[in-house]
Specification:
globular, 184 residues, single chain, mainly alpha
């Protein structure tokens, strides 16, 4: 119903970015629902729509950090659905796009802690894809990058439980990659 209402609003004024954003939010919500219900193909359809909407909105407002953030997050959701469906190469492509968006955002504003955190998480997600494809060396390198960045962020914000949780996840993935590389 939400998606239908968002589409109806957009029909009344197709140039209104708020209505277009509502279409994206509806697609994201449906994608998350389908992913949770283990229906990755349906989730992929919705997340592709979310990616398209957020990319359009970000292109129309290149100086709007929130629009850029949403475009990066949309790529991450799509990557998760693709990975769940066993489409690793496509998931890598979405994660690489996500990483590029975050890199551009940090070039514009290096103080964005949320973007630094997301960038480190994306590096770990790419390391998982490396492992799925058997590229252990790349996974070791990526987890090293993610962990170093997260540790630096923790030094700046030692009470941030989310950073600590992400660092534990990256350390576990790094340990897995090192073990597979025979680096005990």
């Amino acid at each position: 119903a939400y998606a239908q209402l968002a589409d109806a609003m957009a029909l009344t004024d197709p140039s209104n970015p708020k209505w277009k954003a509502e279409q994206g939010y509806a697609a994201n919500s449906l994608g998350a629902l389908f992913l949770n219900r283990r229906q990755p193909e349906k989730a992929i359809v919705q997340f592709r729509r979310y990616v398209a909407v957020t990319a359009d909105l970000a292109a129309a407002a290149p100086g709007d950090g929130n629009r850029q953030w949403e475009a990066g997050q949309a790529q991450g959701w799509l990557a998760d659905a693709l990975r769940t469906n066993g489409r690793v190469a496509e998931a890598r492509q979405a994660r690489t796009q996500e990483l590029g968006i975050y890199a551009a955002m940090l070039a514009a504003d290096p103080r964005r802690a949320d973007v630094r955190m997301a960038q480190a998480r994306t590096q770990e997600a790419l390391a998982e894809l490396d492992l799925l494809e058997g590229d252990v060396g790349a996974a070791v390198a990526r987890t090293g990058i993610a962990l170093a960045d997260l540790e630096e962020q923790i030094d700046d914000d030692p009470d941030n439980g989310l950073l600590q949780s992400l660092a534990v996840s990256a350390a576990n993935r790094r340990a897995e990659a090192l073990a597979l590389a025979g680096q005990w």
